[in-house]
Amino acid sequence: MYDASRPAPVIVEAVAIRDDAERGLAMRFLDTPPPVAQHIEQIVATLPAVEALRASDPEPVFIADILERRELD
Questions:
Q1: How far apart are CA 34 and CA 48, in angstroms?
Q2: Where are the chain's structural domains?
Q3: What is the rounded CA–CA span in Å between residue 57 and residue 10?
Q4: Rounded to an integer, what distance in angstroms lies between the CA atom of residue 52 and that of residue 73?
Q5: Residue 66, phi then psi, degrees to nearest 5
Q6: For each of the chain's 73 residues, which pLDDT tens digit applies?
Q7: 3-state SS of the chain?
Q8: Interatomic CA distance for residues 44 and 6, integer angstroms
């Protein structure tokens, strides 16, 4: 996850719990230490709202990269 206040991205392990196609994925973070979880909450709380061309209400946008994909057992 990218945040302008940090020189390096925050790297966490997560599971995709929902796939909304072009709208993105809903993620559940796994085994996140409390300081990292608090930082993620701060990132999400300060996200700018972005309006889609056809949306009636702006939605927060969060940018992240998937570094590795694994199948769950």
A1: 24
A2: 13-60
A3: 28
A4: 37
A5: -90, 115
A6: 777 777 777 788 888 888 888 777 888 888 889 988 888 888 778 777 666 556 566 566 666 777 777 776 6
A7: CCCCCCCCCCCCEEEEEEECHHHCEEEEEECCCHHHHHHHHHHHHCCCEECCCCCCCCEECCCCCCCCCCCCC
A8: 14
